[in-house]
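Sample A.
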Amino acid sequence: MNTKENILEAWIMVEHLSEGDIRLKDNNIQMIEFPKNNNFYSLFSEAISKKKLKDFQKGGIVLYLDIFKFEVIVSLLREKFNLKKLEEEINVGDKFSFALYFDKNLQLVDSMTFFTASNYILKNKCVPKEKEFLEYEEENKNYIKDLFNYSGHKNYVDFFNDAFRKLMNTYSLNLRNCRMKVLTNLEADAINLHSFFMNDLEKAKSITTENLDKYLLGIKKDRINLDSRKDRDSFNPNIFWNILQPKNYPIARFPSNPNYALSFMQQVAVNLAIGYDDEKIRSVNGPPGTGKTTLLKDIFAELVVEQASEIVELKSKEIKDKVSCLENTGIGKMPKSIADKGILVASSNNGAVQNIVNELPLISGIDEMFIEELRNADYFWNISNSNISVNKNQCEKEEKFWGLFSLEGGKKDNMNNILTSLEEVINDLKNNYVSNKNVYNDFKKQYEYLLKFKQEKQIFCEKYPLLKKLKEEYDYSIYHYQQQKEEFENELRIIEGEYIEYQQEANVRKVQIEEEVRNTDEKIIHNLTEQNQINLSIDALKLQKPCFFSAKKIKQDYKKRMGSFSEELIQIIDKNRELNKYKHSLEDEINTILKKEKEYENKIYQKRKENQQIVEKELDKIKEIDESIHLLSKEINAASVKVLDMNADYNTLQMDNPWFEKEYRCLQSRLFIAALKLRKQFLYENIKSIQAAQIIWNKQKEYLDNKEMIEEAWNWMNMVIPVISTTFASVHTMCKNLGKKTIGYLFVDEAGQALPQSSVGAIFRSKQVMVVGDPAQIKPVLTLDSAILRMLGKHYGVSKEYLSDEASTQTLVDDISRYGFCNGDKWIGIPLWVHRRCRNPMFNISNAISYGGNMVQSTDTPGKAFWFDISGNAIDKYVKEQGEFLRNKISELMKQNPDINDKTKKDTIYVITPFKNVAYCLSQELKKIGFTRYDEKGKVTNIGTVHTFQGREALIVFFVLGCDERSIGAANWAVGSANPNILNVAATRAKEEFYIIGDKRLYLGIKSTIINESFRILDRFNYSNNSNGTNKYKS
């Protein structure tokens, strides 16, 4: 599932199914009438002769054979795979089964024989694998080649007619389903039959680049959520602080009005794009009016200045390292560091491509203070104005552009225009330019000054983290001090408590000991008294000691009494010895108690002393930090620098841009102008390489053996014209000889409209990729409905991320972008949130139904909006009553403002609808009052489906819903809960007034959250304005 090969195979089949389109209404495509005598040779030969081809023209004729309605294929697939028919509006028309090309001599050009995959499916009733289809095509091409292989054995006319009749029989051709077209140039005119992307998709199978692999395989790094709402769990202010440090800001800026800085998220996007990290592919998601083109201008300016800074460092400004093919042919090898900053802008939308390259060099987009400086810089000012298409309201001498900054490339005519511009540049450098090598030093001085300016801001910026750190340290020190103080007090209380408890026990014991000592002393005294008495008794007895001659009994009696006294004396002496011993023990106990009390007192004293020392030390530290905070705060406050405040409310934050003021923006713009001066001098010193580039690019076939020369030719063209644009459809044509990673920066505009396969060739050729768009607006235009796409995805083992009605270049790059935003359950690229186009309630409708309320409005000036409840019976979704109501309403407005009908002035009103038929019928109805406008090709420009108006704006928009109860499925497809895109685009085309025309009961009845929320916003808006008397429409 989702292997590189499977994805590419699936996309190739989708592209095969897009091949073979034929517009039967094209006046140059003719029916093939059955000729007289079956002489097809004469029929085709006469058609070619009417074209009056010149001898040098390699013209001929193409036959479109077996034409059928593509709806037949769609129905076949639905039936085979049991798919329900959907209400989606898809582009289905007519297809041819195969096409044969003959030169003007009616010789088959077999290499151009072309079979469609639709033909295979029609014949075989199944979807082929790529290999199966190629085998089928090869088999049929070989058959036709052999069929028309003329051996010379008979007349060629007869041979041709026989071969053509066999062809008709073999393929059961009915001439009513066949057409022919005479071509002036077979190769150039035939290209529209093939898918524009097929060759690059085939190439991609064998190409490996980091960007391509990420794109195809969804390889992602850890995502970083740029959620700037501080009330969300995903809010991480440190991310923004790091990205928006002054050192990460661009050193250059496009010279628009310096009074206005980029918005918060615009600046985040620019800083990321110019090298904050090492990501090589990223996306920006910009809702309508959020300044996607504005941020691209600043990125382009930065790249141009960085190229200039690289040029300044070159020892020799003339590039002497050459790439050569022939002995006398060579082209300067552009230093990689310069070439890698070349710019290619691509889009699937031709209008978007033209808008960007036409807007970049407009004088009207430059602030007045820089216009003369740009004029003096003269980056081919006159050449840029030499090809202005002059309208009736323009004079021929009007100067519209400030320089040759951007041109549209891609298709052959545009590339010829670029080559012509190169020739004019060469002539201007040779004949008009005065060499001035001082521009290198002038630029370097300015560049270094701005680097210093940025560095000073960076040093200042770094004081804020230091201040923050000091404050955190201060808070921690206070906290730690309080904690320590509390711990010390607790420890002291414990010791004092223990002491008190001990003292209480000791005092009791002391009393007991004193009592025991008294008792002991009394006993000792008593014993001593008894001892004295015994001694006296002994002394008295000694006086009665019997003599030698006393009777034995007397002697015995004396001895007995003396022994008794001695015994008593010994007992008393022993008692006193014990009593004295006990008394000494009591005295020792008292001493122990006194000693322990002293120890407690010393411990308490020491603890208090220690605590006091620590507290004083902590207080000194706190005081020191406080003084540092005071000094740093004083220094910061004195500077009056706008600081990044991530604690600001959401709206204020989104409108903010920190650190730099108008002064820096002026310096940035002037550095850009200095870079253009330097660039012109550099081109002058390398004029030979520019001449070589013109020759090589114009004759690429001669240099296919050394494609490096073609790559260098591109580098030099891109050096002359800093921004080249192309549609994806023309990438292969323009870049067919450019290999992988040969383009510096690829910027994809309106990427939400680009089919994912369309950008493959541009991506693998580019080193850096940035896609810009909004998936919440118009989805890519499809030729197959979503159910069939899902079936093809299942058939090829590819998930809906790559093959569905929602898959686009934007969604795929969104998914792999490291920096982005989690919008509900979807990960999108870097979001832009400040809207500068619409008034309310259009802004509120868009913000509510598509952007989760994340957008911020730059102005709160109210507009006008209302739902006109008009119903009726619908024919193919068109309600006649709605058309008539709109005609009358616009008639009223035209009377009030005649400019509305002035074809020389910009459109005031757009009429938008979800449905093609409604758009057509409205154009016819409004034609009656002269409102409908047409371009030079006869295409209506001010009425259409939302696809017509992507990227455009008008003061007033009418959104006509159409439908009735019988087409409720179509109504649900257009504005159902699952599809907010159409209403979002319609509402955001209106700058001041937005009016819905539709059956209110019908649309509220489909229970669409999109419609219900929009109606609620409209209702509340009009109730508020009616209360204030500011809205003339009343329900």
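Sample B.
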Amino acid sequence: MAKNKFTEEQTAALEARGKAIVSASAGSGKTTVMIEKIVRLILGGADVSEILAVTFTKKAAQQMKDKLKSALVKAVNSLDTPVSDLPRLKKQLSAAQNAEFSTIHSFCANLIRTHYFAAGTGGDFSIVSASDAPGRELQLRALTALFEEAYTANDPDFQLLLSVFFRKKKDDMLKKVLMSAYASLRDKDDYRSFLLRGTEYTEEKFNAVCAGLLDNFKRKCRYFRRRAEEEKEYFAAVNAGGSTRRSMDNATFIIAAFLDFENAEDYFALKEVPKETGYTRKQSKSKSLPPDFDKHADALADCKTAFDTLHKKAEEVPVRAKALEDYLAAGKIAKSLAKYVLLFEEKYTAEKREKNVLDYNDLEHIALALLKDEAVRSELREKYLYVFVDEYQDVNPVQEKLLSAVGGKNVFLVGDVKQAIYGFRGSRSEYFAKKRGAYAAESGAHSLSMNSNFRSAPAILNAVNEIFSAAMREDTSFVNYAEEGVMTEGAKRYTTDGRVCFHLAVKEKKTKPPVSGVYSVFERSKIVRDEKFNALSGRCATGDEIARIVKEELKRSWFDPDEGVTKQVSYGDIAVLVRKNRQPVTQGIIAAFTFEDIPFSACSPVCLDDFPEIKTAKDILSYIDNAEQDIPLCSSLCSPAGNFLPDELSAIRLAYPEEETFRGACRAYAREKSDDIAARLRAFFAYFSYLRDLSCVAGAEEVLTRLFSDCGAEAGLLARKTGKECLKRLHYFLSFASDPAPLSVHEFLAKLQLMKGEIMYEENAGENVVKILTMHSSKGLEYPVVILGDACDPFRGKNDRGELSADDELGVAAKMYDVKNMVKRETLLRDLIEEKKIAAERADELNVFYVALTRAKFALHVVFGKEPPPMNVLYADTYAEFIPDYVFDKYLVKNEEEEEAQQPKQTTYSTEFDAALAESILREMRRQYPFEGGENLPVKQSATSVMSEIEAASGGGAQGGAVYVADEDVPAGVFAAGSETRRLTGLAYHAFLQYADFAFLRAGGDTTAELAKKERARMKAAGLLSEEYDALLNNEKLASLLKNEVFARFAELSRRPQPKTHILRERNFLVSLPVRDVYFYDKERYGNLENETTLFQGAADLLLLEENRAHIVDYKYSSRDAASLKERYNPQLSLYRKSVAKIAGVKEENVRCTLFNLFRGYTVEI
């Protein structure tokens, strides 16, 4: 770019001397400016070796080198360059490839290798990623060594951690927690001292936590109170003749209710605020009210909903004494975790030293330690007279200190706080904002902005400015967009404005009764309108809408400002941006593109089972393997191997309605008919008989390849737009049939079943395809046409806080674990850290949304899966809530004719029919499902899922409690040393009782311990008890268990069996039970389904069935006391009682249920 083409903002950045930081908006040419500044330095006499340029990816570093070389080549060839400068410029050009343009990790590695002795490393070390296989292997080796020492030492801190994290008879959970905690803390420059400092829990800190929670709570109340006050002002303004009196009263009540919360003296006083507000139902719209009245009434109703949510949270605030007790108890766990994180680091460091490797965090920390040496720092500053840093908004605390230490008098920092999207990696965008403030205040330093955009068309710039002027403010971001970030058109590059369109994927339609009057349970079910369910089933409204937009865009053109010409939109011009790869909406988009034959490439692996050609191939193999299957037969008939049409399959079925199966109808048709269909059926059966014979001597890959060749399937696929991609997927699919050795058809099908449809495939479809990529991976890229996936899809997934939370100010927080009763609770400290984390994530998501919108050059489409909620930036859960209502209305595409055209046309057939039969059929089809509200019930429920749902309903915040280990878990500290012993002991006793012959009890004169010894020997000889389990059993312990009264009746019947009496072990059952009984914990939703039933499944450890009674014995291996165990498992055993009563035909009161705690040796009657 010639000098006279730079804008005033760019020129200011180029001419800035000394220290400068530039806030460069999207598309403002920051890389061009940085390269130009470096070139000017070199042209002015600087040497390439004196320049350090740091960026965050190898690709970006290489691109900077390439651009520098191109600029130098241009300068060498320029007639304006003095002849005397040419030798020096050519020398600089030769040195450019080795210029210190690198990632921060490459810079750190070079620094350490240069000063390896001072760093305490070898000079020839290798670099590993802690998250890759080699790094994880070293971590696991370190943990194994650490745990062996800890088990032997019987350290109380280790025993405490095992009592909490020993899950499913393994210590794997504790290992996972330690590795995760260590990884999350290493982006802090002082993580060791932070760990020690952050695990000091005091009552003073607890009070500060409560104050922070109260401040957040009141801030939210003030926000919604002010919204209610705005609505009240509206209702007062339109209150002609008292027409809005009810709404005004409702607003007054809500405002007063929020003020009650705001006047609370402390966090625990929130519980005292009354729930009743005086608010009545929302006022309905009438003809006398303004057209926009409903919108304001809904907004006030939203405030009432917010109050109800806040009040529910206030009700759950624990008593102060209990909250403090939990806080201090959690502090002990946090302190023990901190100790073992640091001990793990010692072992991990030793493992790396032995292998002579460093991970990426090591590079940063060791380099930072070196730079604390004044001699090293001075050497670097003398070597690098000019320091450039790109994407400065993405630095983490360690990197910020590193770069600050390296920078001397000439520092040029470029970034954009609006594009800081890597908070989840530890980056801190506030450093950029603070540095701008510091440079603005420092004499001789410069804090500059570049807001001229050279990428996007005017319409896109206008839309982006409208959205973020309202959304990016001091209270939601580190920038005031309206004052500092508004983008302008960098040059008059576009001859047209471009286009911005918002689309509702689910449009409101006038509901009309179906012509047939047919009733559909599916239509009645709420799940029909559940986007996630639809996406998982293969299609979603958002995916279908995006496919439609793509097809419409292909009919349109776009102006390319770089070439100055108008071009037809092609597939390769279009990018679809999604928030996450594996979210249901993304899968729905892929399904829609596949269905519509739209070529695409995904930036992440896709599941092969989602593609129709793979489903067909699997069905063909299944039919070859077993011909007695109707569905694989239908699929094979419609495949290129048969080429039958659906109407022809219908004709076959209608010709032989008496045949029980479709395959029977096909065989009869082929045998008895003489038309074209029959001839083709006979040929089809003969060919598949041949393939079945071939499969006896050839593998699955060879069989399918032969079929493709014989029927010309490959040529047929290649005739499609996406044919090449289909063939690539098929060949990849077939590779699994010969890896590592050729598999038969049956073996390959068995392998596919074990893989459960999870064959992931990297889609790489070439250039002229639609790109589907995440918003994060789109950063730095640009496309003529950009389509954003569902803006109404929540950008935050499942709320999983993890076992350890950390905050720079609040420290480290663990959950509270009641080891005795095996109950876990969140603490108020974790609640506050989570609130801060959510607020930070929301700010990051606002930036992600900005990045996504600014990728578009000429056309921008935003799709909404449903009517978007009102703008609510402070507490947004979706991108739609970042958009002002007027902006949504402005860009929403409203095309009712297009919508009408998409409606399927109804075809009427005229034929004679049996009126009575038709009426009978219609009567059945109109019959409604009698249990409204139960359409979404799962077909089947289990004891495990019931328990989980009960726990989910009762768990939650700091006041809640949930069982945290499997029902047979016990604290590891109660056993002798040896991790394998702890892991398998419970299973061993359970296995013994599963196969024990109770007839041996009280036999002869032997003691119970002697009898147990003999029974163990019998089980081992019969292969029922492994050597490993047998070694863990203790005869005296078994004797103690077997003497329990619960086994007396079983022993008696085992010795003297009686008619109509059965002893069953580990018996699975499936029974139909009333919905109200299975879902007893959710009477609000299902209490009205009096006569509806659902399937319930379970497994009885030990079951005795007699003529008029039954006895269920359920084994548990738990450290709980009797009362706690009974409370925990009463729901499960109550459902077991109902199930057994129904199956056995006995009364419920005659079914005895006993819990037997094998760990403590007591029984509890339920």
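B remarks: Residues 691 and 976 are 61 Å apart (CA to CA). The first strand starts at residue 19 and ends at 24.
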